[in-house]
Write a structure and sequence with these properties.
This protein is mainly α and about 180 residues long. It is built from six helices and no strands.
Length: about 180
């Protein structure tokens, strides 16, 4: 599905969130701690930025977005007991945003709103790059493929990071057994 450039940072976060939801639903060892870490490093910020940037564009759907964010935050606080429910809620929320909320925003977005949202989401991405060199490379490639006014100011400069290797693997946990939802 083609996504508006301004919404791509949220969709990238959603991809990571779906991997986390799957780990929680499968009951993988360490998944509750991964969820706490994700909350502290990215998820709380992701929710705050969605509410700040997308809330004014969401119309009547803003209430649902905010309610689901609050439920997920409460489930994070109840880990590890809430792992399955958190996984299910996170997946459902992400699917709703990608399939309902984002298309609604995209269809109503004016050129000026798109420009302002793109500037804000690029600032958000730039702020995150210091902790996510792989993400910086991805966004740098996306910017180079598109003509995004003002994006050059946010394009990362290519630097070698010691934690990177040529065999850079995906940081998502891999299943140790056949994939199966253990949430009942």
């Amino acid at each position: 599905m083609k996504r508006a450039f301004a919404l791509e940072p949220f969709s990238r976060d959603h991809n990571d969130g779906l991997h986390l939801a799957r780990a929680l639903k499968e009951g993988r060892v360490g998944a509750p701690q991964m969820a706490r870490d994700a909350w502290d490093l990215e998820l709380a910020d992701h929710f705050a930025e969605e509410e700040r940037l997308l809330g004014p564009l969401a119309g009547e759907m803003f209430a649902q977005m905010q309610t689901e964010h609050n439920i997920i935050a409460m489930l994070v606080d109840k880990l590890p007991e809430s792992a399955c429910e958190l996984g299910q809620s996170l997946e459902s929320h992400i699917r709703w945003e990608e399939r309902v909320l984002f298309p609604a925003i995209e269809s109503a977005l004016t050129a000026e709103q798109d420009k302002l949202l793109t500037e804000e989401t690029l600032r958000m991405e730039h702020r995150r790059w210091q902790h996510a060199p792989k993400r910086a490379r991805l966004v740098e490639r996306r910017i180079s493929l598109r003509s995004v006014p003002g994006a050059d100011a946010f394009a990362p400069t290519r630097q070698h990071h010691p934690e990177e290797s040529s065999n850079d693997t995906n940081h998502h946990p891999q299943p140790s057994a056949p994939i199966r939802d253990r949430c009942g």
